[in-house]
Amino acid sequence: MINNWDAADWQQQDKAHVWHPFTQVSYAPENIIIESGEGACFIDADGNRYIDGIASWWVNLHGHCNPYIAAAVTRQLQQLEHSIFAGFTHKPGIALAARLLGHLPQFAKVFFSDNGSTAVEVALKISFQYWHNQGTPKTKVIAFKDAYHGDTFGGMSVAARNAFNAPFCPLLFDVIAIDLPTAENIEQVLSHLEGVLKNEDVASFIFEPLVLGAGGMLMYSAGHLQQLIDLCKRYHCITIADEVMTGFGRTGKFFAIDYLERTPDIICMSKGITGGFFPLGATACKQFIFDAFISNDKMKTFFHGHSYTGNPVTCAAALASLDLTESETTKAQIDRICSSHIEFAKELKQYSSIEHVRHTGTVLAFDIKTDESTGYLNSSAEPLAQFFIKRNIILRPLGNVLYVLPPYCITEEELEKVYEAIRELLDK
Ligand SMILES: Cc1ncc(COP(=O)(O)O)c(C=O)c1O
User: Fold this and answer.
1) Which of 176, 161, 277 is nearest to 228 (CA)?
2) CA-to-CA distance for 312 and 206, rounded, in angstroms?
3) Domain 7-53+328-427 sits in CATH 3.40.50.10540
């Protein structure tokens, strides 16, 4: 039962009882109470519509309350809401694993968890235990300097050391950080990587393919990534693609690794996997990795699982979302957003107040020039977010990095409204 409070009461109850993520209450504005969602928009209690320009933290693909996904969820809820996933299995879980592997022909098995952080945590634990099970334990991980892989301890460990994890730094395991490759530094990055692979006991290399999201929407080329992966393979280092943000069409192809000729060994998925309906994590691995866990020795088992692992309702949402993601309509929507971003990026390059205009697929980003240090704590973020909220648009800059990452169903008109607000900001 939801209480029958008035608008002011809801605000007061929110302040009194809820601890919101990534929010400093001493200066954060009042939270907007969302009543409903429709297409690429939210509607608040006063009937104001907001265009969700960042797909609700990058999860929503086909629109809020998408009726096709909602119907699939309703059907599943009437059949089986949840069951233990060890010793038991169910059709939505089996079908989803098979369906995901259909897009990942070189992968063999899917392990379900709860969100992006746990998908990464599972990948890291699988890679460490892979070596352990063979009697050659390895403890080092290689990651990009500006990486973000989630808020659990493994995810934080393999991420950049910054505001997100400063209080926990002494507790995080050691990671060898390498620079993001560019045309200028690729040789140095390769030689640094090779030195590390030769001299350290490296279990795995984890990376966000093509776009480093929370690190500031930093982009790099598939060709350079391929060189890094190939080098890791030469030294038998497990490669882990964290596709939590980039998966399910975000970069223009189904997965960002589809831009590669030779695939990594493990892939982490979440966010868009359910079209933004439910939290779900999935980690897929190749057969040789799974084989290292098959043994009569019980200690070689992967002793990991979450209470809601493989929840059938989330799997049903994911299957319905995949129906839509694979459709010609969605492909056309993605192509349209990609083309619009390309055109708008050309226009943006003429503004002297910004730099590093970049785009990959449906992600468009640029840096607002600033005298302060850049990064997540840059003070431009809050006033910029408020500027857009006043124009009924949800954009949430990462410090001085402004980006647009919309649901695929955003209409041309809505996307143009987002661009128009950005023009207004930059014309000031
Ligand atoms: C690349 C990447 N990995 C992992 C995560 C963590 O996902 P979640 O917030 O669902 O735990 C994120 C979240 O932004 C992400 O962008």
Assistant:
1) 176
2) 29
3) no
Q: Which atom of ligand 1 is nearest to the CA of 270?
A: 10
Ordered by start, the domain boundaries in the chain are 7-53+328-427, 69-325
Within 6 A (CB) of ligand 1 lie 115-117, 120, 148-150, 208, 213-214, 242, 244-245, 270
Is residue 53 within 8 A of residue 344, CB to CB? The reply is no
- Taking the centre of ligand 1 as the mean of its atom positions, its distance from the CA of residue 59, in whole angstroms, is 10
- Whole-number Å distance, alpha carbon 383 to ligand 1 midpoint, is 25
> Class of the 69-325 domain?
alpha beta
Sign of the CA dihedral running 414, 415, 417, 421: positive
DSSP-assigned states of every residue in 357-377? EEEETTEEEEEE--SS--STT
Beta 266-269 vs 281-285: how paired, if at all? antiparallel
Q: Which of 276, 316, 279, 269 is nearest to 60 (CA)?
A: 276
Interval 151-185: pLDDT, tens: 999 999 999 999 889 999 999 998 999 999 999 99
In 3D space, the residue among 170, 181, 187, 184 whose CA is nearest the CA of residue 205 turns out to be 181
Which helix (DSSP H) or strand (DSSP E) does residue 271 occupy? none
Q: Which of 89, 215, 73, 247 is nearest to 150 (CA)?
A: 215
CA angle 168, 400, 174 (to 5 degrees): 25
Closest residue by Cα to atom 16, ligand 1, is 245
Residue 348 buriedness (CB in 10 A; 0-12 / 13-18 / 19+): buried
> pLDDT tens, 210-254?
999 999 999 999 999 999 999 999 999 999 999 999 999 999 999
- Indicate which residue's Cα is closest to atom 8 of ligand 1: 116
With residue 205 as reference, give the H or E element that holds it: strand 202-207
Residue whose CA is closest, atom 5 of ligand 1? 150
User: Distance between CA 130 and CA 135 in Å, rounded?
Assistant: 9
70 CB neighbour count, 10 Å cutoff: 14
